[in-house]
Amino acid sequence: MGDSSDDDVPTLSAHTLAALQEFYAETSEASATPSDQFAVGAVDEDWRMSQFWYSDETAAQLAEEVVREAGEGGRIACVSAPSVYQKLKQGVVEGSDRVSAVVLEYDRRFAIYGEDFIFYDYKEPLALVANVAPQSFDVVLADPPYLSEECLSKVAETIKHLSKGKVLLCTGAIMEKLAKDLLDVKMCSFLPKHNRSLNNEFRCFVNYPSGLLS
Q: Which residue spans traverse the membrane (predicted)?
């Protein structure tokens, strides 16, 4: 895995970039923190829950990916990945109005999102609310909160329960072998970024043909 040139990095579509600029022009007038409830960072990170939000551009790129893969009328589950859910709801990603999304989170502050919020404790991977039917999501994007075999193994149970097939996993590069064993995913060349730098190399993995791979 050598350094890749900027030419290899997936870029946001012109539509998303323009909509993103308009969104922040409207929401950042007098405050450094966007006031919109769906802005990435509208809910502060809490390091005690191992929360590290994606950069705005990474959240948008991942949102574009899941919209494309979910298809018209598709359903998307964001497991411990609230910043991607927020980006889907901002209305800046082309096609996001033609899909539905939910956010599975341990942090009950995200209950501000009403019926889209599903309380989730990875230690009880199948203890989901009754209206979450098995294999009912076209794409499941998951970002396990901890870099441990136990955490990834339990989150993988949740993913398999939710997904019709397509999985986008975001976790540390050191979890590559276990992720492949559990979910048959491949590491992408796309490098996700966070608002704060992490100590561990962070990567995305998919189990379907994706532009993020190359």
A: none
